[in-house]
Structure formats: structure tokens, C-alpha cells
Amino acid sequence: MAKEKVTIGNEGIYDARQLGMPKMITLGLQHMFAMFGATVLVPALTGLSVSATLLFAGLGTLLFHFLAKGKVPAFLGSSFAFLAGYGAIAPAGEKELLPYACLGVACAGLLYLILAALVKAFGAKKVMTFFPPVVTGPIIIAIGLTLSSSAINNCKANWLVAVVAIAIVVICNIWGKGMIKIVPIIFGVIGSYIVAVIMGDVSFEAVKTADWIGLPFKFEDTVFSIFKNPDASLIVTAIITIMPIAIATMVEHIGDISAISSTVGKNYIEEPGLHRTLLGDGLATTIASLFGAPANTTYGENTGVLSLTKVYDPRVIRIAAYFAIFFSFSPKFAALVSSMPTATIGGVSLVLYGMISAVGVRNVVENKVDFTKNRNVIIAALILVLSIGIKFTSVYNAAGEEVIAGGINFAIGSVNISLSGLAVAAIVGIVLNAILPGKDYDFGGEAAKEE
Q1: What backbone phi and psi angles, to 5 degrees, belong to 217?
Q2: Would you give the DSSP letter of residue 3?
Q3: What's the average model confidence in pLDDT over 58-69?
Q4: Exposed, middle or buried, 120 (CB in 10 Å: 0-12/13-18/19+)?
Q5: 3-state SS assignment for residue 296
Q6: Closest by CA position to 450, among listed 365, 392, 391
Q7: Helix (H, G, I), strand (E, B) or coil at 410
Q8: How far apart are CA 271 and CA 312, in angstroms?
């Protein structure tokens, strides 16, 4: 049997086993740290459990890897796309209303299974004719650019701490040797964390009072608690309101898988197949939501780590998942994670989000998208402008609490639908590519193999 290969920095190709278990564990920890900021922020904004979030991020990742034959180095973390849905059903994070919102998200996850079945029935080639590099490339670029504003906002909390994190990451990755070169995120987090502690920007009160061991979720926080005394009207409202959001997240899933494919240099849409990755993402979202955790999604932060470290072994991602599951049973650890300085998260995220956009540029260049054609220019231009120009905004409810509102809001009958700029841009790009003449991309041809 041929030994599995991975790329380590710029030093060449090595057998993954040469890393050794200690180094593999360190790399896994780095991926866990990379996803922390955004993954923990979703329950912080919605009122969901941080511990449950970590548990089902880990379990969802392992389920995804099982269904994708263990071939795709993707981590599944909390999805921001459903924030508007949670806000619509439980605007102030009401504990009694959150299970209804979670039910709506669980049903949205089932739509992934329908699309996966269509891909399986008709083939990825027919589906992917709607997602050529002129569409997916700018979408990947936009994913990084739209996330960048959250990184900047986090950096504003303390620019000195953020700059320390950025500087350490850059120095370790450019001038570091051996493991220092491929785990710059960990060093960036630790270094900037120490600076923040010295400056007095970190409070450990919540850590001191938290228990060492505890269950990640409670029955009353799960969807199953609804059926003790169900509100039928609220159930229908939650499902109808939240399910349409899945249309946008499924498009983002295809963009994320394209980004990982471009980063690693393997076409995961063909093998193990888009239907398998959609199935894994959808089931992970449904299961997580049933137990009171946020929806899952393939995580751009971890794609950024792949691009930065050049270590693509999926086993490293699975190690990160094991760590997430292990630490989900420690409320004290959840409190420690929550105490991580906002500026530290911002500084590290700034680098990772930039790496995502760079992968999008590479996707466009390697597939030789012809920008001398007006159709390609128009498609790319509208995707970038719409995704960046239309933003989710923070508004405040009657209780004075922050709620995330969608950039584009409209009603179909009594149903209110909110779409992010990225969702609008993706839909516009897909439609324009389908109707404008002059298509020049053949999925499965030489250009696609390069992707």
C-alpha cells in the first residue's frame, strides 16, 4: 500500500507518519484554536451553549469525514448564515424560544440531503456547470473579504494585542524552522494572549467559578423539549422562516469545497464527490441543531490554516475534532476559551481570512479564467460588489440587546426572508453564468483538473 503524503511548508513532500504523534497533536490543536473565535462567537450572539457548540462541531466534523471517505481536510464549525434566523425566532436569546429556532435550522439541514440526492442522480458535472471558476473564484475571494470586517472589528478592541498576534504568525511562518513554521497560529494566540494578560485585558473570574467537568447540553435546551408542550404555530413559523437560508449556505458549501480543492490541489467535487460533502454538512447541521447547538458549516478559518501551513492530512483535522469533543465536557475550558482576548481572535483571523481570498485569486488564475470576455468581467464584478456592499448589520431590540439583521430583507406572504450579501452575490453570479452566452468552462476537462 502506498504511503500517504503531505506537504510541509516549502521543504518538500514527506510521509505523514514522519510527523510523529506529538507533531500531529500540535497541528490538531492549531486547527482547534483557528476555529475557536468564530465558533464560540455564534453561541455568544444567540444564547446557545458554548459546550454543546464544541461537542457537535467535533462530532459533526467526524461524521463529515466518515461520509467523505476521510479524504477532505475540512473542519465543521458554527455557521453565521443562520444568525438572522435565530434572531427572528428568539431575538433576545430567550431560552424557551431557541429550541424552536433550532428546529427550523434542523429542517434546513435536510435540504442539503435533497441537493446531495440530485447531485448523485444527475452527476456533479451537470450541477457544477452552474459553478465554474468565474463564479466560485470570486465567491471564495468574497468569503475572505466579507469576513475581514469582523476581524478588523475584533482588532479594534486592542490593536497592540492584534498586531502582536499578526507579527508572530508572519514571523513564524516566513522565518520559522520545523514545527515553528507550521504551527504559527498557536504561537500567535499564546504570544498575544500573554501580552493581553500583562495589559490587564483578560478577566479570569468566569474561569475560576466554572466546574471542571459537566455535560455539554441540557435536555431543556434541545429540540426534543418542545414536544412536552408544543406551540404548533411557532413550529411552523420557525421552519418556514429559517429553511430558505439553506439555499445560501449550500452555495457557500460549494464555494468552500472549491476553496479546499484549490488549496490542496485535488478535486474533491469529483472524489469523494459533492454529494458526499453535502450529505455530511447537512446531517451535521441537523444533528447539532436537534441538541441545541448552532448549524455547522465547512470552516474557512481552517482552510486558511491549510493554505498557511501546507499540511493537508485530514487526520490532523480529525485530531482537532477529538480535542473539541474532549474539551466540550469541561465548562472551565469553555470559560477559558470565552476569555480569549477579542483582539487576539481578530489578529489571527485577519491573516486567515486574507489567506481565503488569496485562494480565490489562485482559483481564478490556475483555471485561466478569460477576463478579456465581458461576460466573465460582469459576473465577477457583480459577485464582488454585491457580496461586499450588502452586509449583515447589528440592530438593537426593545430590550436593548444586539441582534443581527440581514442585509436584504423581503417578505413572501407572511414569511420574512433575510439574505446576506454573499448569498445575493452567489445567486446573481449563478444566474448570470447560466443565461449569458459565451461559456468557456468544461467541468471535468483539463481546466477542472487543475482546480
Answers
A1: -145, 160
A2: P
A3: 94
A4: middle
A5: strand
A6: 365
A7: strand
A8: 16
